[in-house]
Amino acid sequence: VKKYPKEKYIVFDNYILDKENKAIRTYDKSADGFVDNLKNIDSIKEIKIDKNTKKVIINGNVELLIDKFNRLINYKDNNIKIVKDNFLRNCRYIKNIELNNALVIKDNFLENATSLEKVSVKNIKSIGNNFIRNDKELSELDLPNILRIKDNFMYSNKNIENIFYNKVKSIGNNFFYNNSSIRHYSFDNLLVIGDNFIPEMYHCNDVILPKVRRIGNNFMREKLMLMNLYAPELEEVGDNFLYKSFRLDNSNLRKLKRAGNNFLWSNFFANELLVENLEEVGDNFMYQNTKMENFYSPKLIKKGKNFFYERIKEKDLKVLTKK
To answer: Do 262 and 283 meet the contact criterion of CB atoms below 8 Å apart?
Structure first.
């Protein structure tokens, strides 16, 4: 293992900061947006805080707090606008980060962090794939200006309870994939949702998505307590939409045109479904529903297998025909 004299270098996590030549690189030579952001270093100032921590200030505005184990624990840079791919990707022990003037975060930001306490990125408008993918403990994330979120956002998080992202327009796959703590949410301007949207969110009776137009696979799958769905602009849904959401008995899907396989599979409570713009449905549409009394779909032209399977077995077809 190569030795790096403290007089000339600051070594922390996977980084080697050369004080003499004013340069930084990763130890394993991997790509990292943090390194890319510091290609032009004019000054490095090292301040000992106490016997356990030291602060490093680069170019007068980038602040790093490093613990006695040579791990980055705090990071602050309020000048950066574009956060490039793999930014601090492998800093597992970082606790706090502040990037309050950043507008765009690209892929793999803090992907392997596991000890986060506070993330401040209040002006971010766009977030790439694998944003804080592996941290479970963060309990709050305020994104008042976010417009676009890609895949695997906060994939492993288990503690955040409130998500009010009222400017966001698109959300990718696996959004908050492992979180079962979410109690309150708001997406007033959301238009597009990818696959596996908050699959572990069980504590909701109502889903309100006033502007959403397209939803991917496995939306709100197996939500046993869900009773009401309001999505008046929704036009297309993928497979397993509200699959095994037994209690749903009130929905507004008047603009829905296309539905994938297993739409409302095992819904036992809905007795009315008005979908006057529905044109195409996949297999197992309303499979196992036996309560339907009023089904209105005058434009339906393509049906998959097992359409209203239980209802048809009872030969009660009149409720399924066009008005």
So the answer is: yes
Alpha helices in the chain (DSSP H): 33-37, 309-313
In angstroms, the CA 16 to CA 116 distance is 23
What average pLDDT does range 135-143 have in this prediction? 95
Kindly give, in sequence order, each residue whose CB lies less than 8 Å from that of residue 321, ignoring residues fewer than 6 positions away: none
Distance of alpha carbon 190 from alpha carbon 284, whole angstroms: 28
Cα–Cα dist 258/73, whole Å:
48
pTM of the model: 0.92
The mean per-residue pLDDT over the stretch 217-235 comes to 84
DSSP labels, 262-279: TTTTT--S--EEE-TT--
More confident residue, 206 or 116: 116
* Chain-centre distance for alpha carbon 38: 29
Let me know if 286 is exposed, middle or buried by CB neighbors in 10 A (0-12, 13-18, 19+): buried
Q: Is 269 or 60 the better-scoring residue by pLDDT?
A: 60
